[in-house]
Amino acid sequence: MSLPSVSIDVVRSVPRNVEAVGLAVATSGPVPRQLGLARATLAANGFEGKAGQVLVLPAATGPTLIAVGIGDVESLGANGLRSAAAALVRAAGKRTTIATNLADLEGVDAKSAGQAVAEGALLAAYRYIGLKTDRSGASTLTGVSLVVGDKRSAGVRAGADRGAVTAGAVHLARDLANTPPAYLTARKIAERAVEVAGVCGLGVEVYDKDKLSAMGCGGMIGVNQGSVEPPRMVKLTYTPRNPTGHLVLVGKGVMYDSGGISLKPSDGMHAKMKMDMSGAAAVLGTMSTLKALKVKAQVTGYLMCTDNLPSGSAFKLGDVLTFRNGKTAEILNTDAEGRLVLADGLSLAVEDGADAIVDIATLTGAAMAALGPKIAAVLGNDQPFVDRVKAASERADESLWQLPLAKEYRKLLDSQVADMKNVGGPYGGAITAALFLNEFVGTTPWAHLDIAGPMDSDTDDGWISKGATAFGTRTLIELAAGFSR
Ligand code: BES
Ligand code: MN
Ligand code: ZN
């Protein structure tokens, strides 16, 4: 779905007419002969082969040569290759065709190398130009040729195919999160999900407001109450034969988070709240890949989609909502809405008989304050499962840091009139948010990803492009691909 229109070829030698050739250079050892320059000359031009460094060498005739630093070959892994491929694509600028030997380096197995290089190239080529009438900012990349020896070509081909699929999922999720809120309502994302399901071999069910009310999804209904746009919950199902286990993913799909009656100030952060559906976008992106990747686990995805807006009909401070699992919460801040829509989704995940649940949400400014814009928080009720999520995130090169699900803070949520309040105190906000969610997962192994920090990026940085990042998408794909009960 939404595959970037860049072809990735696996070839024996550099094709004629490519506009750029990217050659890997480590910090020690021989410099590729094709560069035609000695290490001392490269160094004199500020290029030492360090990871992230690139040196563009224009040529009077033939392709531009680009030296791509890979650092120490011994410690080069797939993550280093992904970053190097991204640096190469950025250095290549407007050139349309690139050849590179990055996938041919020993030390990283052929399949992982093919996947990482494809991902790095395709993710760095992502650009959102949205509604600009001037389309000249669009990526011009059309082809990447991976030059590899015979021995590695089958593995690199298989890996590159996987990378094209995972990058397609990230492009889809980034596009959704970058889309202006008037262009992506809950109804629209549900329509999009139905299309994706059709193309990607998934089952899909869309739940409207009446259905959600009838089901007792009081979190979804309460948050939606102030909006003229109706809510949508989308359930996506992937059901292989003889599944190895059942994983359920729940994504926060707050299409626009104004804060509601607890209105956010009109600052830069408020202006990013069209991206408050990044969790739902990551779940949809992930679901879109499962069939193509022949994932063996059963996977269910819930997209919990609604606006959070103030109006005469909006939910109020002091209101009590009743969720799908029967628990109640007193609303003391309508801007703590993400946990309310997730509560219904988590309850349904438990009812589905999940072997494990992951929710992904732009949930708290507190997670961003704690870990900054590059690292997401993970919390959970089952250390072995949290460890699997962390391992998946390492393979995806999406940084997670675990915060404690500190039960001693549960009393901060105590309410006089309901089972809990929807906010804790001024401190430990990422933890109290997770403790709220913990009320809805029972004993099912569960991990919560708070992606508020890394949901977007102010700058192009390697395989992360400016704007929505789709953070978590490749972690969830990795997790699903290896999941068993
Ligand atoms: N969507 C926001 C969290 C957020 C903030 C995401 C910044 C991305 C960037 C969430 O709904 C929210 O408003 N959280 C409140 C919770 C508080 C009221 C307990 C917050 O973090 O301030
Ligand atoms: Mn909010
Ligand atoms: Zn929110």
Description:
With 485 residues, this protein is of the alpha/beta class. It has 2 domains: 7-175, Leucine Aminopeptidase, subunit E, domain 1, CATH 3.40.220.10; 179-481, Aminopeptidase, CATH 3.40.630.10. 32% of the residues lie in helices and 20% in strands. It is built from 13 helices and 19 strands. It has helices at 39-44, 78-91, 110-124, 150-178, 186-200, 209-214, 218-224, 278-287, 338-351, 365-371, 383-396, 429-438, 473-481, and strands at 7-11, 20-26, 54-57, 64-71, 97-100, 143-147, 203-207, 232-238, 246-257, 298-308, 320-322, 328-330, 356-361, 376-380, 400-402, 420-421, 446-450, 456-457, 467-468. The strands form 4 sheets. Strands 7-8-10-9-13-17-14-15 form an 8-stranded mixed sheet, with helices on both faces. A 6-stranded mixed sheet has the order 1-6-5-2-4-3, with helices on one face. Helix 3 (110-124) packs parallel to helix 4 and helix 11 packs across helix 13 (473-481). It is elongated. The mean pLDDT is 97. Bound molecules: ligand BES, manganese (II) ion and zinc ion. Ligand BES is lined by residues 257, 269, 272, 276, 333, 335-338, 362-366, 368, 423, 429, 452, 455.
